[in-house]
Write a sequence for this structure.
């Protein structure tokens, strides 16, 4: 019974940002059609429609209702990243959950990005919003990609979805000695992660055109790889996330190393390149 309540609460907490996203993509979509798209297991159609109306329904009026504690052990985290400057990799990770239309089916994609070099270091794909199928596998990919020891003291920033503060996820971040951070009321507090959602879906996955779940999984991996290795970023001096991190690694191995954000780099092919610190919105 407790497990069932936990899953229901986690899914309910994630519905508001997903409803917001759908209404941005489909401004006049009804609550009933949104229900058919999301097919949430935590509530029926009529309850979902009431949930939308009680939440304000129109995008500008939607509120992400939060609680401090409840019987499931919910904990809220302050927004730590809004007043800091990101100066290195493995300092701040941002994450969000989005939806993807696969024919008449809806799948859920979770991404974790290193805010400093904009690299996707964790992701997952699932048919539901349960923590063990969304944020947990994505974070395990981060551990594999960056190494457990390098995550100590890192900030994990997200929206208010229950998948980011359920007991299992909190236990894993505690084991890794990571610091949890969450948005408050303003959408732009997780803008980088939300922007990433749109890029992966609209610039990669929809053009790739997956037709079933196996092809979606395969093309999602391809999209992440192409984004990390082939998409230049203006904020990174027109380097890709992978190239930017390689430059950092080279600087770290230099006896006269200074943080990449504070020095100019000479490159025979590109000339003199100035890399600025990554600003947090």
């Amino acid at each position: 019974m407790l497990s069932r309540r936990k899953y229901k609460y986690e899914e309910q907490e994630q519905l508001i940002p997903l409803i917001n996203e759908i209404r941005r993509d489909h401004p006049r979509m009804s609550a009933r059609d949104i229900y058919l798209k999301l097919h949430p297991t935590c509530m029926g159609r009529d309850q979902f429609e009431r949930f939308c109306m009680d939440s304000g329904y129109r995008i500008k009026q939607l509120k992400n209702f939060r609680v401090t504690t409840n019987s499931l052990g919910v904990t809220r985290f302050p927004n730590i990243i809004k007043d800091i400057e990101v100066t290195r990799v493995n300092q701040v990770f941002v994450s969000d959950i989005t939806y993807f239309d696969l024919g008449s089916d809806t799948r859920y994609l979770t991404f974790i990005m290193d805010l400093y070099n904009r690299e996707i270091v964790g992701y997952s794909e699932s048919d539901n919003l349960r923590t063990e199928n969304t944020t947990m596998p994505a974070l395990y990919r981060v551990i594999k990609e960056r190494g457990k020891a390098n995550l100590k003291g890192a900030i994990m920033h997200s929206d208010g979805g229950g998948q980011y503060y359920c007991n299992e996820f909190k236990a894993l971040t505690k084991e890794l000695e990571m610091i949890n951070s969450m948005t408050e009321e303003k959408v732009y507090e997780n803008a980088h992660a939300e922007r990433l959602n749109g890029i992966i879906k609209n610039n990669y996955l929809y053009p790739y055109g997956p037709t079933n779940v196996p092809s979606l999984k395969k093309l999602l991996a391809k999209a992440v790889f192409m984004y990390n290795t082939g998409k230049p970023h203006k904020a990174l001096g027109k380097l890709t996330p992978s190239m930017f991190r390689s430059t950092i690694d080279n600087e770290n191995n230099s006896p006269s190393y200074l943080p990449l954000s504070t020095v100019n780099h000479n490159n025979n092919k590109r000339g003199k390149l100035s890399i600025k610190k990554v600003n947090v919105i």
Remarks:
- The first strand starts at residue 92 and ends at 102.
